[in-house]
Amino acid sequence: MAGDSHPKGHRWFAAAYDRLTAHQEHNLWSKIKPDGTFRFIEHVRHDDGLGGRLQDLATPVWRWFAAGCHLNRRTGQSISEAGFEVVEERRFTIPPGMPVLVGVAKPA
Questions:
Q1: Residue 15 structural domain
Q2: How many domains does the chain have?
Q3: pTM for the predicted model, two decimal places
Q4: Which of 32, 29, 30, 31 shows the shortest CA–CA distance to 80?
């Protein structure tokens, strides 16, 4: 995670595949200025049924091998629940079929 420091908080924070917990996402607000942004890139859970279920099944083992990484995280939903408003978002897929969410959020 990186940020542009300012005496009254950060103008922006960026997270890339950072495995932020919901608690850490919520605490970002205390570090971001009211007009600041949170920029993120995360692999996310498949929207379709089969892909999502496969990610759910693989996540417990994957977390152990990949230092706590969750294949099935609903990142967009977590960001919104932490008090952010997603103002830009782009979804795409990387091999071997992993959905990725890239975006910008600001205080809601």
A1: 2-107
A2: 1
A3: 0.72
A4: 29
Name 36's Cβ contacts closer than 8 Å, sequence gap at least 6.
Answer: 9, 10, 11, 12, 13, 106, 107
Mean pLDDT of the chain: 78
What secondary structure letter does DSSP report for 94?
E
Q: Phi-psi region for residue 67, left (φ > 0), alpha (ψ -120 to 50) or beta? A: left
Q: Which neighbouring-strand residues pair with 106?
A: 85
CA distance linking residue 80 with residue 77, whole number of Å: 5
Where residue 98 sits, what CATH number does that domain have? 3.40.50.150
Alpha carbon distance 67, 62 (integer Å):
8
Per-residue pLDDT reduced to its tens digit, 35-78: 888 888 888 999 878 999 999 999 999 888 888 888 888 888 88
Q: What angle do CA 48, 100, 20 make, to 5 degrees?
A: 110
